[in-house]
Amino acid sequence: MVKTIHTLTIHDYSLFEKTGDIKYLLTGWTRKPNIEPLLNEIIKGLGSETNQDQALQKEFHRLKSVYRIQYLVTLYQAAYNLLINKAKIDVWKAAIGKGKPSNYLNLIEYVDKIKEATGIEINPDTWDDDMIALSKEIDLWTDKYKQNFLNQPAGEGMTFFQIVMGVFAALQFPLNDQISMSDFFLMKSEAEKLSKRLELQANGKQ
User: Fold this and answer.
1) Is 161 exposed, middle or buried (0-12, 13-18, 19+ CB in 10 A)?
2) pLDDT (tens digit, 9 = 90+) per residue, 190-200?
3) How far apart are CA 142 and CA 62, in angstroms?
């Protein structure tokens, strides 16, 4: 049976695009699958509401992905430095009988931003594991960036996953390739609306 845009995930379609194997579009074996209606829906969903040149769209998605990675790296470095310093200072205070924990308001701000950007919560008792989770999130974005931008031959059009990265980066969501295509198309529409609003603001037409 052929999947629908509600059951087909980003991961499924990405594998189909890379391999051309229609098994990723099916829920099981079927004798003569008609995948054309599904592909037509996907092509329609991936189409842009704007008439921007594809090269410009690709550069926009690339820059959004770079910004996303840089933002997460900055939060990681800032939070890690404060967590290490806070732990050391609290040990020194305890050693001289000044056991009140230090209060780093900046750390709270960074922790809140990390949770907002990735869904990862940095807790006092598990912060080392939580920071490892954040590091893995950065590694995921970096690896996908290299695969989808640095390793692509010059002159090729946008890949499906380049569009995916641009949408997730624009909405400041963590990458999740298990989202259905229908949900992704809704996200893509929101990302395009956001991009249009920012463009109008930049042009002084708020």
Assistant:
1) buried
2) 988 887 887 77
3) 12
